[in-house]
Amino acid sequence: MPIVDAAMRQLRQMGWMHNRARMIVASYLVKDMLIDWRWGEAWFMENLIDGDLAANNGGWQWTAGTGTDAAPYFRIFNPVLQSRKFDPYGAYIRRWVPELRHLDDDAIHAPWLKGVRVAGYPSQPVVLPDKARTLAVYRSGRTGQQ
Questions:
Q1: Which residues lie closer than 8 Å to 111 by C-beta, 6 or more apart?
Q2: Cβ atoms within 10 A of the Cβ of 98, count?
Q3: Can you tell me the distance from the alpha carbon of 146 to that of 123, in angstroms, rounded to the nearest whole number?
Q4: Confidence class of residue 146 from pLDDT cuts 50, 70 and 90?
Q5: DSSP symbols for 48-113
Q6: What whole-number distance in Å separates Cα of residue 1 and Cα of residue 96?
């Protein structure tokens, strides 16, 4: 997932990432990949130079829907839509995922949707964003459509 890859690479290199990127990554890991939020929270605290226990822990609980503002089944960020909305020209992805730098502004957000394959980069995500809502709803025990 290019936007998630860009954010994680930025965090690894700089020890920081924008709050929007933090929310996209957290949502992808928790809702799409079904990773326990506490793993993400701990990894971020180890790597963030501006790590604040309350903000980091609260943000991960907010994303997971386990905090005081629980909303587990509908607070799911589609990383492709978020990427297109907040980085329409792909500048952020181009900076942190240079192997995708040559792609046009539309394809860079989701190369697999355009049938584009890039040497050295996965041909599609492990979990497609369209499946995330179904997985999160199923996991939360909710069966109705929202």
A1: 2, 100, 103, 117, 118, 121
A2: 10
A3: 31
A4: very low
A5: -TT--HHHHHHHHHHHHT-STT--TTT----HHHHHHHH-TT-HHHHHH-GGGTTS-TTGGG-GGG
A6: 12
Q: Return the CATH superfamily for domain 2-140.
A: DNA Cyclobutane Dipyrimidine Photolyase, subunit A, domain 3 (1.10.579.10)
64 — pLDDT class (breaks 50, 70, 90): confident
Residue type, 36: D
Please tell me what DSSP assigns to residue 17. Answer: -
What does the domain layout of the chain look like in residue ranges?
2-140
User: Which two three-digit tokens encode residue 56?
Assistant: 């980091």
- Mean pLDDT of all residues in the chain? 87
Of 77, 75, 108, 74, nearest to 91 by C-alpha is: 108
Q: Tell me the C-alpha distance between 80 and 129, whole Å.
A: 8
Which pair of tokens denotes residue 72?
Answer: 């587990």
Residue 116 buriedness (CB in 10 A; 0-12 / 13-18 / 19+): middle
